[in-house]
């Protein structure tokens, strides 16, 4: 099978030969090249690695439903309760998760780490909804589910047991959240999280909103457990909005420790990005960083639309990147950066100039999209996209909805 | 003439009667209402006040041209020189300004304050290019031109004289820039700016990138001159990125003084918005604030696309607004907030709940756009737009380009 007339990472017009779902050859584009009828016409578009959304909450989304005014009270607990009071008014979780995942795939995402909220109110209902979306799209995207204790592990009865059940039933990652500010007992919280990780031999992903040095304190507790349990390479910190908002020596130490323990990071490109650890320095230190869309038009926030290219623009914008190399690095992070979190065997980014994913030997997980250059494509966010997973077209000719 | 079946600010389906370019009546929508054949079919879309872009650089844009990698060196001088070294490689200024202004109108902007760079290199050539765009679209948008000394007033010979010529030839506003960090002689810089303002009886708009307390120092010099020359209501501060990044007492004092001297502000919704003066507090203090798109895909930055609805989303995002009232306030700022800077006789916003511009007596300067609610429209940024100025359709059925 051939993908004809595409420009890998903005390079020369090429034809890609696909064998067994992988790129077997990258050849100069030749309009006269023989074609068995199964080829994809790239029409001169860019061929880019498809997106990996490493931090999204499929189960909370209301994308495509009538818009609902925001009623959340501030803070994690207030927003969690706002969701709890209303989510049963919506169509079933499986319906909403399946619809959003389909939309994400149409726009170029083929790998997902989705949170599935586990709490005393919803039990495993949301987890099962995310499982249904994963199953519905299993040929189009790879979905890894995190069992996520959104309302804490200690505040309500039975949550660790529900987490344990989810991990025995298809959840692949153990989630944790704000060890200090939510459960207010960081040691107990983290002991449960890492205990479940040990029992299920699963990686850990901690959702960290805590400010300044409190966030650093929680992070240090996580680093300590990662080292003690030999979990190098298996721990992700999500958000970590504030780890760059303390003294420079501390943030430098954290980057070094993250590299040393192979802690990965998931960012959602927040408006307060300037308080986070600096992206380019994380990459240069060899720390795996991925991008995610977080909650999308849900009880938490009206933002988000299932489009990782929009979010890639947001990553560039919030980092105030202007040089093309850095803007294009955002696509590398949003695609292969995240992929290396979900599959640590994949090569990681170590330079902002790395442009992986469209070479001989790579899985043909691709987005074809218009753009003079990759930076132009990030700015323009064109809608004429063709999405391939393992060399097979899984979405084409996106119509704006 | 009628605009049928629209929802003003998200309200009930209505028919708007237009007389002499103004809204003469807002009536419940009645499909059977008599029609002389000149009506506009709103198709149930929102009817919103059209946008006012109060801070854009029409003359520097490269929108629609082949994407050019960013070559700017950091800092205002480095970026100015990058532009100077390359801008003559592009099509004539008049062509580029006219094309972008047309695109801005298609997306819903009908009022513009555009910078026209005046410097020793370009003389009046850029100013004349902006003048040509203003003339080309004179029936579709109102354009106010600022004579803007991008490379300073003191560093190169003859700039004040060029500014004087521009102000005698159609420029309506005197620009200034970073009194301390660019010319490095704030008193001389501001004396020239305010001297030209007095001579031409023109308002002043100062482009302020200066950090922290240096920005406050320059601002205080500007406030002093505003008071001494009786220029209340005629001075705008643009950018002022950093006036919220000092001690709280100082930022509070500045907001009070801006209200007292009727200083207005133009923001471009930068990524570092959290360092600026707080938008909602400015509004509540009665300070006029408008939104602008700044440079758009130019030698300074690859961002910007002529779409003020995108920029309105950016204003909400960078302010981390989630409640609907605040998100909708961003549209009020982007439309009537800016309009009150360009025409101080217009009513100003004094509450984040103000929803002006679509009532009996208002000029029929409107955008019709899809949206369940106004906040949903800001999130979705739909492309099916009809734009009216003074009751006349000036753009319709936007096709994505």
TrEMBL record, chains A, B:
<feature type="domain" description="Amidohydrolase 3">
    <location>
        <begin position="98"/>
        <end position="394"/>
    </location>
</feature>
<dbReference type="InterPro" id="IPR011059">
    <property type="entry name" value="Metal-dep_hydrolase_composite"/>
</dbReference>
<dbReference type="Pfam" id="PF07969">
    <property type="entry name" value="Amidohydro_3"/>
</dbReference>
<dbReference type="InterPro" id="IPR052349">
    <property type="entry name" value="Metallo-hydrolase_Enzymes"/>
</dbReference>
<dbReference type="GO" id="GO:0016814">
    <property type="term" value="F:hydrolase activity, acting on carbon-nitrogen (but not peptide) bonds, in cyclic amidines"/>
</dbReference>
<dbReference type="InterPro" id="IPR032466">
    <property type="entry name" value="Metal_Hydrolase"/>
</dbReference>
<dbReference type="InterPro" id="IPR013108">
    <property type="entry name" value="Amidohydro_3"/>
</dbReference>
<protein>
    <submittedName>
        <fullName>Amidohydrolase family protein</fullName>
    </submittedName>
</protein>
<keyword id="KW-0378">Hydrolase</keyword>
